[in-house]
Fold this protein.
Amino acid sequence: MAASLEPRVAFLGPPGSYSHQCALDRFEASVQYAEQGNISDVFRAVSPDIPFAVIPQENSVYGTVIDTYDALRSPTAGKSVFVRGELTLAVKHCLVVRKGIEPEKIQRIISHEQALGQCSNFLTENFPGIPRVKVPSTSAAAQSVLYCGEDPGEPETAAICSAQCAEMFDGLDILHRDIQNEASNTTRFFILANSLDTPLPGGQREPRRQRALIRISNPPPQRHVDEAPPPNRLLHTVTSTLMTTFGCAALRIDRRPSLTEVPFDDVYFVEVGDVILPVMSAEANKSCEAEWLTRVQAGVERIRAVGGEATILGLW
């Protein structure tokens, strides 16, 4: 009966992925884990039934995880799905094959797009000309390798995944370890939740909220299809007035094509932060957080007042 009371956390599966490892490190045995087939599914899974999720946001070598920002464009982001925290994980990749397979027999290499990019130097040097194929996750790649090469004409395949992942699937050999381009290779993850206020599971004390993610976009176009699109003035707003708009530092700005039909219309994701040093007293922390949240909300209203659309996607 007690197990049914544990909240569920969605992650990019199968088990053994870096998302799974990161979620385990944070939540341990305090939750039930719900694997999903791809990043979009992880995002869509956040609901009253699965109130939390862990999703990759950016890698220090290969950059932004595009699927995550594409999901953050959706209307549910900022309404029923929110960013509530961040986690980082040191990422060390291995090249794995079926037991007994020699390197010269490898005909293709599969993994998540990020892992392939993070190991591009190793692959170019050691496996030039071998096709690299994207799959939904590193653990899905490892799982697929177990069954490759069994049918006539099917290419012998290697996968990029973690050593922990390789150990989860019986029948895999690790050919090479630490094949990432940079020894400092690190991935940042977002913790998602279906509410801005529900306490995160795991029993860890949540610090004062000092980060916000805001989506800024143009309103839906009010023009005929054959009319030329108006100039995108959001770029000026986003890059030149953030400090005065939000009254705090812009830590990063990301951009994706908007979901409108207007060519080259963009949506911006702005992460702002309160750079004031933490204060010791709980009462002072609460006061600082309230003042900062007021500034963030005031910035959102300023953007709306000049004709833009602004949505708070997360607070942490």
Q: What stands out?
A: The mean pLDDT is 90. The radius of gyration is 22 Å.
